[in-house]
Amino acid sequence: MRSGGWVRGRRRRIAAAGEGARLEWDSTLEDQPAVRFFLYEDVLEDFTAHCEIKDRYAAKGAEALWIEQLVDHPWRTRDPETADLFVIPANFYAAHRGWCRKTPEEFLRTTSRTLEGSDWFHRSGGRDHVILSTFFESWRQIERLPKFRNMITRAAHTRRIV
């Protein structure tokens, strides 16, 4: 990870250390390294240009708020070479509800093409890529596109646990 941005706040942590011993330390969030992330603009523009959010859940749901917060976040980088993490800003709930001029399958195809053409996705096998969907029907939509499903499940099952 690269260092950079900061967040305000202090935390005191206590951790177990061996046989009942306790370690105590202060942790300042300002000292924590920034996680530089790259937001796939073409996926974001595809959803933004074709969707009109029509209900409170979609407008204030996890996907919409997460993407909204990331767009102007200070840790965002527009240079993928400096990114630690890659965000795929898709909101499949809006597409499933019919609030878009494209079907969910069309959005998945567009997203799939973006990832297929991404050197950064292939460099890591997708292990440093994140897509958020709290909508329970998302997996059914993904199942309809086996190539996309295989790409993301292979990435999920080949990650390293540190």
Features:
single chain, 162 residues, alpha/beta, 2 domains, two-stranded antiparallel ribbon, 6 strands, 16% strand, disordered C terminus
Give, in spatial order, the strands making up the sheet with the most strands: 4-3-5-6
Mean pLDDT: 72
Number of domains: 2
Q: Can you count the beta strands? A: 6
Report the C-alpha radius of gyration, rounded. 19 Å
How much β-strand is present in the residues?
15-25%
Descriptive overview:
- The structure is a single chain.
- The protein is 41% helix and 16% strand.
- The two termini are 14 Å apart.
- It folds into two domains: 33 residues, no CATH class; 121 residues, no CATH class.
- 22% of the residues are buried.
- It is globular and about 45 Å long.
- Helix 1 runs antiparallel to helix 5.
- Strand 1 and strand 2 form a beta hairpin.
- The N terminus and C terminus are likely disordered.
- The protein has a four-stranded parallel β-sheet.
- By secondary structure, the chain is α/β, with parallel strands linked by helices.
Brief summary of the model shown:
The protein is built from eight helices and six strands.
Topology record:
Elements (H helix, E strand, L loop, with lengths): L9 E7 L5 E7 L8 E3 L1 H10 L5 H5 L1 H10 L4 E2 L7 E4 L3 H5 L7 H13 L2 H6 L4 E3 L6 H6 L2 H12 L5
Parallel strand pairs: 3-4, 3-5, 5-6
Antiparallel strand pairs: 1-2
